[in-house]
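Entries read sequence, tokenised fold; example below:

***
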Amino acid sequence: MHSNLDILPLQAEDRSCWEALWTAYLAFYDTTLAPEVIDLSFARYCDPARTDMLGWLAWRGGAAVGLVHVITHAHGWKPAPVTYLQDLFVVSEARGARIGAALIDHVCRDAAQAGRPSVYWLTQSHNSTARKLYDRVAHDTGFIKYAK
């Protein structure tokens, strides 16, 4: 990881920085969320009493340049809980600086320290930029997501 990169838990005072990143992430996926859903998600990620929804920001030079959110849950095939890396985003001007990899590494270290040794995530099949990173740091399980 870069020595000038700090990955810190999401705090209430980070709202404006987080929301700028979150809005850009949602725009990348051509989606929007109702303001009350954004408020609820932010509150959940910042709540220190919650262990099932966690969030971090990547900071470089005093600016928030990336975010990651995870959801932890029990798993029917494993005795230990698992970590679902739900959202990962790095601002376009900071891409290629291994910030995404640093965020994934941070999530994996946090998960292992908390007794959740399995981390997984999804991405769109045509997201070739992200998939280059994911292919480098993990393995494709071959699963396809369905939703109803």
Observations:
- Strands lie at 5-9, 53-60, 63-75, 78-90, 118-121.
- The chain has one domain: 5-137.
- The radius of gyration is 15 Å.
- The chain has a mean pLDDT of 95.
